[in-house]
Amino acid sequence: MAELFASVDLGGTTIGCALADSEGKVAAEGTIATEGYRGPEGVIPRIARAIAGLTEQAGARPSAVGVVVPGLVDVKRGVTKFLPNMPGKWQEVPVREILEPLVGCPVFLLNDARAAALGELNFGHGKTVSSMIFFTLGTGIGGGIIIDGRLRLGPLGAAGEIGHMTILPDGPRCGCGSRGCLETLFSGPALCGEGVRLLRSGQAPKLFERLGGDLNRISPKEMAAAAEEGDSAVRTVIVRHAEYLGIGVANLVMTLDPDMVVLGGGVAQMGALLFDTVREVVKQRVLMVPTDRLRIEASLAGEQAGMLGGIALAMKRGQVE
Predict the structure, then answer these.
(1) Could you list the residue range(s) of the whole structural domain that residue 15 is in?
(2) pLDDT tens column, 234-250
């Protein structure tokens, strides 16, 4: 049997676990409730039990475990620093030290957005390019920077917090404390908030029809579909906010001159209207370097990018830089 590696995606409500080989072929996978109210001392043993269950299912033990966490980590020490959406006190928790004896193999930690970029690097577009900027577009915006075929983390593992670059100096207040961050302008909640406004003001009849009038069903993907069906006000909103994303992409293209920009995460499923707008903005704003060779594409790893990033992290024994 091929050597297996474990990936753990630690979320606020669920923990996703998988065992896969070096080609990314999944041997076993499952999801359990996080039960974050138990704190690290309750959650970490649950992770170990989930891995044990998958090990029994696959009939083989993992050689290493990659743990993907929603926040900042000390990559070298395997310690969580700040997990803003996790209940319980996760500051300075030595996850590696606690989990390794429970699973019987090396454990490595990485931020979730950087892990998604690592998944794309090893199992997606990264197979064909040497430099890439990866965006995760979802409830928030994160990402990863790949240069010379390696994920760059910086001294604190925080390189790639591209959702917090300033786009509008006097823009909306961001959860990070700053104003006008890209995350406040093109995250899922930012777009859905605009969609709700249009629905309540009667400017989105197609969107209303698609949702059956249920505002709880609104999503960027549904908004994009309504725009394609003729909701001009929805189209205008999407284009305006996609232009903000395009400005962020253009800034990074001018800074790093990558081979490719990859858009991943749920919001990237908006499709052609999003990608066409971003490509046009980059074309208009990046004038000092040629952009003819630059590709702006959807993630190949898709929804599995984070999971695959955990597998790659385990495979590389944490040596991703």
Answers:
(1) 5-111+305-315
(2) 999 999 999 999 999 99
Q: Which two tokens stand for residue 203?
A: 């400017």
Count of structural domains within the chain:
2
Do 131 and 104 reside in the same domain of the chain? no
Q: Is 203 inside any structural domain?
A: yes
Task: Name the nearest CA neighbour of 109 among 317, 272, 321.
Answer: 317
Host H or E run for residue 117? helix 112-123
What is the C-alpha to C-alpha distance for residues 32 and 194, in angstroms, rounded to an integer? 33
Do 104 and 129 lie in one domain? The reply is no
CA dist 262 → 18, 134, 142 (Å): 24, 5, 12
Does 266 score more than 70 pLDDT? Answer: yes
Asked if residue 227 and residue 90 are part of one domain, the reply reads: no
H or E element, residue 107: strand 107-111
Q: Which residues of 262-277 are buried (b: 16+ CB within 10 A; e: fewer)?
A: bbbbebbbbeebbbeb
pLDDT in tens, 78-121: 999 988 878 878 999 999 999 999 999 999 999 999 999 999 99
Write out the two tokens for 125: 């577009």
Q: Is the pTM of this model over 0.90?
A: yes
Distances (CA, A) of 297 to 261, 281, 320: 6, 15, 23
How is residue 61 written in tokens? 């033990």
116 three-state secondary structure: helix
The span from the CA of 155 to the CA of 175, in Å, is 23
φ, ψ for residue 84, nearest 5 deg: -65, -30
Q: What is the DSSP string of 131-159?
A: -EEEEEESSSEEEEEEETTEEE--TTS-T
